[in-house]
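Message: I would love a firmer grasp of how sequence relates to backbone shape in proteins. Thank you; the sequence and its tokens follow:
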Amino acid sequence: MAEANAKELKFMGKIVGNVAHEITNIFAAVGENAALVQDILTYSPEGTSPSPERISRAFQTIERQIARGVELATRLNRFAHDTDETEKTVDLNTILWQVGSFGARLARLRGVDMRVVPSDQPLDLIANPIRIQMALFDCVQFLLDHLETCITVVMESRGGKNGTLEVTFSPEVPGESVESEVDVLFSLPQWTALEQSVERSGGKLVSSEASGRFSVVFFAT
């Protein structure tokens, strides 16, 4: 139990650290564009009007960054409230968006595009929301750490067979290198650790060696 709690605390610290980096970047972008507007207004040649196009572009960037900051803060607030109860009803689609948002910075640093494809139907289950997010985040980290030429990670949620809910991870790599890379994924020692992380969340890890995809499977409520 103590080890599990330590893992959860480490995960929460990692998420908060990632969001803090993102918010710092947002403040930097807002500050740079605000300074740009000030420079345009201050140093425009005498007798001329400041460039409305440059000012408009700067304000558009500021607006985008503010919207991004609000979204991150909202997600971080939701994440904080996920610790209020050890088990509650959660929508797997919401969890998927949450993990995709938190993992986006790590993917971007590796030059990887992350796409989230939620189900068009609610996917409710009773579970520990922190452990589910930790397990799915570990799946993202596993792919980023072990697929050197990966260019896209697709995370897709859907209803499965016999009352199950699934989140499928599909790595995409260029050319014909996909088979040679994914063949070794499921034999790595880290795969066993990933299986344990998923089991702690109440799910099961299922791999498809032919495609390199793998799924985290949960039983619906």
